[in-house]
Structure formats: C-alpha cells, structure tokens
Amino acid sequence: MSLSSLLKSFDTGLFAATCEYLRDGSLLCGTYQLLSGPENENGSQVGTRLGGLLMLSAEAAELKDPLEMSAGVLDIKPHPTDNLVAVMLADGSVNLMASGASETAGRARLMEQQRVAVTEGMCLAGAWSCKVGSLSVSDSKGGFSVVKPIEANYSVSERFEAVHGYEVWSVCWDHEKPDVVYTGGDDSLLKVTDVRAKSTVSTVRGHDAGVTSIVSDISLDNYVLSGSYDEYIRCWDKRSLKLPLSHLKLGGGVWRIKINPDKPNLLACACMQSGCRIVSISDAQGGHPVNILVQH
Q: What pTM did the predictor assign?
C-alpha cells in the first residue's frame, strides 16, 4: 500500500531547482533555467541564468505570483531562529530576504533586506550555523565563504579558496562544533574545514562521483550523512571518517537529503532519476545502518 498520494501539482514556469518550508508552513520554491546564447571568442556558449521565487501559501493551496530575482536560484536556506531567508543565486550573490506579511496582494511575502556579493562564480549551496548565526556559502569556483552579521549588515568574513578541484555542490556546519564546516565537491571528495584555524582537517574519500548533499544534525549525534551523484546515500561516523558505516543505492544521484523534524529517523531524499525516496535510519549496536522504507 502506498504511503503517499499526490495532492496537487503546479507549473513553475522555469525549472524548479530547490524547495524549503518557512517557519509559518509556507513552501518556498526557487527556479533556475539557463537560456543558451551565442558563442564567445573562446568558443564557449554564453547564456542567461534566469530564476525566481514562488511561494505556496500554508493557508491556500495555490502559488503566489513569482518574485523575480537577479539570476537563477540554486538554493534556499531559512534562518533556524529568525524570519530571514538566504537565497543563493547564480550571479554569485546571496539575497537575504525577510519573510512576513505583505501589503501587495498576490505577491510572495518576502522582502529583500540585503544583497551580499560572495563570489565571481555561482553560489551553489548555503547553510546556517545554529550556534553562531553565520551562513556558509559554497560556489562553482571550488571554494566556500562565511557570511556573518557585522554591525547592521551581513558581509563575507572569511573566504576559503580551492578547497575542492571543481564545483562545491554541498556545504554544512557541524551541529556541535561551531568552527567546523563540511563541504562536498564535484571532485568526489568530502572535506572537513576548521574555519577558525583556516585549514582542512580531513579529506574523506569513498564516493565514486560528486558529493551533492551533506547533513549534520543533532538528531544524528555523531553521524554525518552524504549523498552523491553515484546514487548512494552514506552514513559516516565523524569521529572516524575512513570508511562509511553503511550505504544504500537509491537509483539516482542523491541531490538533497532532508530530515523529518517530527520523525528524525525518516529522511526525504531527492534523487535525479528515481524521484523522491523515503529512507529510514535505524540505530543499531556498532553501526548506523541505512535502510530503504518506501519509494514514491
């Protein structure tokens, strides 16, 4: 028997790239689409990266009019304790938006607070630190940046260049250690960086393709989850990252992993070929095996 059913579907216009729930229960969807253009003098094709934000209201099951952004939206991260939303854009900037009531009927209830220039490449992923309120932002240049509130505004406080050889698809703060950041790159590596010491403290091998998603959460205790283009979700003990404790093939590149806040043993995994997979984490003596529950 299926544990899920389709309630409603929507045409987002441009390709839906990322979705996040806000604190009021509304669903925010970011769109991204590359429009190919003419070739430049190097023979590379130049394109325009379009995108915007759409909000599905918690009260009414309908999409509000899209809010156009300066470039394609590649990730969205709501602040864990504040009505602030970080929007990672393909033009290398982060838009910090305040969520709340809007006087304009039919518009998304988001107001731009500040735009932060982060990188000359594309901002690919972001993550808030629950302990210090900083935002880490990974990019297409192989590095990541830390954005902090300084006086009245946010700005880039640290920049880590060439952490990976290619695009950094995923970034995540350690839920216990406020100075530790995990990053996953297209070079198939998961790296652990101490931002205070400004050094890489661990390089984790074991993925057969780019590392696209990383999760560290208080519900996972000493474990870290990773998803990869190689179609596997892996569970690691962060005290010893030489080999994964367990792994599971999901039938598609594991682009996003989300923990159910009410049932933290359940994960929603967005997979590139096989759609959404629901995965259970069952704690066990001597390991943390990952088992599939149901696909839908």
A: 0.90
